[in-house]
Design brief:
It is a single chain. This protein has 16 helices and 8 strands. By secondary structure, it is an alpha/beta fold. The protein is globular, with a radius of gyration of 20 Å. It starts with 8 loop residues before the first helix and ends in a 17-residue tail after the last helix. Bound molecules: zinc ion. Zinc ion binds next to loops.
């Protein structure tokens, strides 16, 4: 019997369905009229880099800056959703809107980038289950319960130690639990990136479907409060009902989440950086200049460039750690492209994704392992969430009652 020649990393990557669950590109599209046919110009994602990196599906992040858009979160949310649709409409030959695992597979057969959407931060629903349902109808398939800001019903790791911010008693208020139940019923994936530890555990206990982290790394390796402890990694892997295959942790590429040295240097320059950036923003505002994503992003990148980038191996360490602690079936990629001012050396855009496969194989990961990490794990999780939604919709009696009265009482 002739030996089957081992597949090369390039061949493995080319054969894989590659799914990334977090890119902040919609802000570029909306504020700076960025089009994915254009050169990267400092960004991480366009059609050319996606093709070179064999990126099959991208979750475009619908992120509403809670300070800048205070008072009209829903409007900004709807405009960001629209900008993703506009991009797909402008390039029907290269990109298609996708709403399900089957859509992702269809896009792949048609050699198009599957475009999906996730809302980053529960403040976008403005405490309304009706808005949550509307966002689902518009195609939003996951929601991060909080961004760096706590909202009225869930707490964030970003301000959990700030006594001036109101926090919940148990991680989720009764309304917050209703939000999770309604997401389960709709088939919207529950994303626990960014939430406080208490909210994390409350969400895991509450959710009928498995949960996931759309863009988080391992706290055992890099001590960021937004990263996940080993216990949390295991809890995600085991989340969901008895018929579930568990959730997934999609690793964030941000230098501050994969390297303590980088993180410490970034935190050390924070006072100086924030003062300089605030002064610049005040100057723009005074001059009546509208502040766009690319303007604030460029400021952060200037400061980040003063700190040496971590090697790619440190990102691979995080993938490896999560694969070992949570299990090989519970890890994937959540780059945070266009939402981070620094990434590891050699990882400059979506075009560099094959380097991850090569590095994993160099560490002994099999072709099959790599394909799971690159996209199959996430696809299985997405299917589980949809199956749970079907069950809940078929048996509405088995589902806890939804709060009918709004506004709800804060806890
Ligand atoms: Zn984020």
């Amino acid at each position: 019997m002739p030996h089957k020649s081992p597949e090369s990393p390039a061949a493995v990557h080319a054969s894989a369905l590659v799914i990334d669950t977090h890119a902040d590109t919609p802000q570029r599209m909306l504020d700076d009229h960025y089009d994915l046919t254009q050169p990267l110009n400092g960004g991480y994602l366009n059609f050319a880099s996606a093709k070179e990196g064999n990126l099959g599906a991208e979750f475009f992040s619908i992120w509403v800056d809670p300070k800048l858009y205070q008072g009209h979160y829903a409007r900004r949310t709807l405009e960001l959703i629209d900008t993703v649709y506009q991009q797909a409409a402008a390039h029907p030959d290269r990109m298609m809107m996708a709403y399900s695992p089957n859509d992702i597979l269809r896009a792949r057969r048609e050699h198009k980038l599957a475009a999906l959407m996730g809302i980053e931060g529960g403040h976008s629903i403005e405490d309304s289950l009706g808005l949550l349902r509307d966002y689902y109808r518009l195609g939003v398939r996951y929601m991060t319960l909080t961004w760096s800001n706590s909202n009225d019903w869930a707490d964030s790791s970003g301000d959990i130690d700030d006594p001036s911010v109101h926090h919940t008693q148990d991680g989720l208020t009764d309304f917050g639990k209703d939000v999770v139940y309604e997401m389960n019923r709709l088939g919207m994936m529950v994303d626990i990136s960014h939430v406080s530890d208490r909210t994390f555990y409350r969400a895991v206990i509450t959710s009928r479907a498995p949960v996931f982290a759309s863009h988080s790394s391992a706290r055992a390796l890099t001590n960021a409060p937004r990263n996940m402890t080993d216990d949390m990694l295991r809890a995600v892997a085991r989340s969901g009902g008895p018929s579930s295959h568990g959730g997934v942790v999609m690793v964030n590429f941000y230098s501050a989440f994969i390297s303590d040295a980088w993180r410490n240097a970034w935190n050390a320059q924070a006072p100086e950086r924030q003062a300089a950036e605030n002064a610049q923003i005040a100057q723009w505002k005074a001059a009546g200049i509208p502040i766009t994503y690319e303007m604030t992003d460029a400021m952060d990148k200037q400061w980040a460039a003063k700190i040496p980038r971590p090697p790619l191996s440190m990102l691979i360490d995080h993938i490896d750690h999560i694969a070992k602690v949570a299990g090989i079936d519970h890890v994937g990629l959540g780059s945070d492209f266009d939402g981070i001012p620094s990434s590891p050396q050699g990882l400059d855009s979506a075009a560099d994704l094959p380097k991850i496969t090569a590095a994993l194989m160099a560490r002994g990961y099999s072709a099959e392992d790599c394909r799971r990490i690159l996209g199959e794990n996430f696809l299985r999780f997405f299917r589980d969430v949809q199956a749970t939604a079907k069950q809940l919709q078929a048996h509405p009696d088995q589902r806890p009652a939804i709060t009918r009265q709004q506004p709800f009482r804060k806890q």
